[in-house]
DNA sequence: TTAGGGTTAG
């Protein structure tokens, strides 16, 4: 792989607001990374070496040593995600600790293993923490109906907290109507919904049915004798802003005292966010001025929000000015203040500036967090500096910021795209050895990289690994392998996999169809390609095909379809191209 | 239970 172009050495001078701030920007392509976070710099003593878990010291426990070590072992297994081993241990334990069981229930449910989670629940006996974990698990796994049935069986509705979990789970999956039904059940059973329950429901109602509907629920809540608090009102203020009615939100805020509730800084921040979304910068500034007078001075969130919005709109210099204002208001910038700017520099491909900015934040006592580093890793990979990314990844722990799944996924992807699949696979082994569980993104990345190298068999092994882990392969993973098969002209196998994908309940997307249609057309299987396109037609989706992959015969065959009402739209080849000439 | 980082695969 050719060495990437170095970062421009003659970068434009920093904007005025930055003058002096970045003066220590190094002339090296990449300045040394910031010094380690003092508090976390000292290497932590290793408590235990691999394989000696059972011999863990139990000096702090007064319980029987056997029960301590098994409980300790169970906790450690759950933490490491070794669920099968944890399940075996739960099966043999006399009375496993409810907190650990709750954690295991959560993890099992997250992998869709709710039946096994229920076995764990049975093993640990009645415990509200475990109940809530089960409820959250069902909801998280999308089995909200199972959650409701289970809830009814156990009559746990009487516990308001468990009900909140169910209501939150239902609301989180857009099942607001069911959540409201649970509320009715609660009221019938004289299980008093509290302000939290209502607030959750109000938030969902705002999202689903709009704030006007939420206002009705607010009245109902008051009728039932439940007094809204400022959080409740803020949820409604947010709902009003979400519908683009910021001025109505401001009006509502003004009337709050007449309901016996004073706005707080969060209330103003919500309105401010609405103003920023509408790019009403002057109004935002004015509101910030008012906040102090109204006894709700801006806090660091206020400034962070402004910085984030300005950066998103490409207004990096004003964002830098806001950053400089923060201390004048008695607030300290934190990593959330710096990260949007760091991201902006990365996006501008000004890596030297980004690195210098990182130094700046450290010199001001704000330590980069994992999001800062992940932002850098992404940018380094995208700018062709994968080796620097690998180096940074390996330095993270010493900087007091251990790499996470996303960090590894980012660099693994960078390596596969740089044609360094072997190193990517080594990194995969490394993360596993460090106890980080790869996820669907890790394996999709690896599979796509292997396919790019025509190593379809290995990619299919990665696919199998995902299934072994109890994770359902998703569309992205299927697409990667289908593309690999099509590129190898094994279109029939690709179609088989397509059928398998649908049979397993994984919905194909536009890319899936594009890949397959192009693959079929390449092999001259025009009829089959057409059938697939018709299927897309019936879905009424727009399809943009890469004309470079399509031969003239294929385009000519399909052209009439592009005029069909409501049918797919085939982007025409660029004017003057050979394909365009052949068509007209 | 409300507001803040448009960190990862196609």
UniProtKB/TrEMBL annotation:
Coiled-coil spans in chain: none
Extent of the PPR repeats: 127-158, 159-193, 194-228, 229-263, 264-298, 299-333, 334-368, 369-403, 404-438, 439-473, 474-508, 509-543
GO biological process terms held by the UniProt record: chloroplast-nucleus signaling pathway; mitochondria-nucleus signaling pathway
Keywords: Repeat, Transit peptide
GO cellular component, as recorded: chloroplast
Region Disordered, annotated ranges: 1-44
InterPro entries xrefs: PPR_rpt (IPR002885), TPR-like_helical_dom_sf (IPR011990)
Comp. bias intervals (Pro residues): 1-17
Similarity comment text for this entry: Belongs to the PPR family. P subfamily.
Name the UniProt record assigns to this protein: Pentatricopeptide repeat-containing protein
Organism, scientific name: Oryza sativa subsp. indica (Rice)
